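Quick one: structure tokens for this chain, please?
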Amino acid sequence: MSTQVQLTQKFRYLVENTGMTHAAIAAAMGITRQFFSAVWLGKEQPTARFAVGALQAGLGHSFDDVMILVRDNTEESDSPR
């Protein structure tokens, strides 16, 4: 079973409705534009620092507003069936 952390739809909605560029939002969050873009595009997973920055920038009230834990229930097995 694998686990991933992803951005919530609520966070994406709040970001899109700020009227700010991703570079400006990243600066307000205290992270680089490159890291913000990588997380936004799903190339990187959001970190605790990302979530804290989002909350400090007013893009949510709790970690649950920013990111969600997604579990893939597919079992990986090396044994033949």
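The chain is about 45% helix and 15% strand.
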